[in-house]
């Protein structure tokens, strides 16, 4: 009789089985806020690519770009207005100096969370990549500014306030607006090049 019972138990397709520990854990699991995606990885406005982390990086890049705009314009105005340098030369000098200040801030802050290598040659490699990408962006920036200044913008006179000693005087601001237009286009190109190449994480580059 015992043999027959064992045979029926072995052949029975609906015999009870002992639940595994993994099944018990999954059935009794409680979802806590920590199980949700990290805030930095959450998409904004339902757009997968538009994450919190990327928006924060873009804001940082924008702030660094504002500082670069300030450096660019100060150098341009000093050379063009006060030094009587040619338009293109004064603009190029402003771009050259702002590129380096932007690199320092972007490397330490905007993309400071990435593993980029701590050796001196790694730093110089990033400088080289940044200058290559910035040179391409600067070329576009110069072209846009030159075209705006010579073909798209006419003279735009701005009356100087009396408080600045400019009563009855005006200044043509079209060259300044042309430079700003070039800066905006150049910044967009520079961000993409920096994000995808110059400041790329070394772990992602190894894949």
UniProtKB/TrEMBL annotation:
Membrane topology: Multi-pass membrane protein
A GO cellular-component term linked to this record: plasma membrane
Boundaries of every GtrA/DPMS transmembrane domain copy: 60-199
Keyword terms, alphabetized: Membrane, Transmembrane, Transmembrane helix
Membrane-crossing segments per the record: 61-83, 89-109, 130-153, 173-193
Gene Ontology biological process terms in this record: polysaccharide biosynthetic process
UniProt superkingdom: Bacteria
InterPro entries given in the database record: GtrA_CellWall_Glycosyl, GtrA_DPMS_TM
Localization in the cell: Membrane
Family: Belongs to the GtrA family.
Protein name (database record): GtrA/DPMS transmembrane domain-containing protein
Organism annotation: Bradymonas sediminis
